[in-house]
Here is the input.
Amino acid sequence: MISITHHATLNEMNVREIRKDVAELLNKDDGHGFDHVLRVGRLALRFAEKEGANTEVVELATLLHDVDDYKLFGEDSAHSLPNATTLLEKYNTLPEVKEQVLGIIATMGYNKYLDGIRPGTLEGRVVSDADMCDAIGAEGILRTHAYALSKGNMFFNPDLPPERAIKNAASYRAGSSGHSVQHFFDKLLIIPSIMMTAAGQEEAQKREKIMVDFLEELFREQSADEWQEKLLSHRMRAR
Here is the structure.
């Protein structure tokens, strides 16, 4: 693993300018905006301190992790990372730092996990865990609702039966589910089991309980017996 002295390339001015550039790229209110980047950044730095990861690499990777997201910029951008590359070069990032940051971005995300791709460095695992943690818990519920609204989708339709959980990246990217609650079973409730750091596992367990409690109450209020059974089945498997 590359060892880099903290603040070898980053300074407060650079961070402020990178944040401005990223905020301009991520200006949509659909759960993937700049507020998400800031939350993941705070969480990732907290994880980095606990795990002993390089905070400079973690901070850069966190700031740039969504600037080529396939949901926002398309598949070609997700593969070649043009926006992240441009910003790293714009601020004269050291070649070894640039390589590690791009490597993290290229290997993180739930769709990459479904393809069997995971970050290989401690810094990558920290950023990935922080990013996934922001998809779950109270904030995850709000983000899921915001994304549904942005696409004109329902959050929950109790008349739709539960589907079998998505098992491959292509199906996940297609996003064919008829409402957002299915997404909890396709991804959100699975996330706690795929954390790669102790700090991530601890945080994810807390957030999982919030989601399960929310779904239990939602299904009770909607008299959605089939969905209650689906949630119970998930909880039994998770034990």
About this structure: The domain at 137-238 is CATH 1.20.58 (Methane Monooxygenase Hydroxylase; Chain G, domain 1). Confidence is low (pLDDT under 50) at residues 1-8. The chain has two domains: 12-120, 137-238. The CA atoms of residues 184 and 190 lie 8 Å apart.
